[in-house]
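Input chain follows. Return structure tokens only.
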Amino acid sequence: MKTSFLTSIFVGVFMLTACSQAEAPKVNVPDVKVAASKVMNANTKAVLIYADWCGSCKILDPKVKKVQSMGTLPGVEFVTLDYTAKDAEAFYAQAEAAGVGDAVKTYLDGTVKTGQLLLIDVDDQKVLSKITKTSEPAQILTAIKEAVAAS
């Protein structure tokens, strides 16, 4: 299973690289694997559902990075789930690997919608809050702190 999953990812990346020769704006794209900041005893995960072709992601991602640069947030771990390849199976495998598979599957109900930050209670596997591109870093920070307090 892992071998076919990894093979699928490598084939997808190769095909995307080979097919896309057009110049695109430079953006920081997370690895295809789950990108996460490791936090011991995190009871809340801030899960960014990201794709490099998503306009909302290009607005939300820098705001989330700004919040991360403000310092350590005890009890929260930041995770990025990459949906650039539009491969739902690989996407949900990333969510499982990050420990938020049940919450993400239930919340998205079979449809992957990029450009959002989900605040998930790890123990209960429930989405506590959703943040979109309209939120400013201060609002994101407040929502994260509230989610940590609630979980």
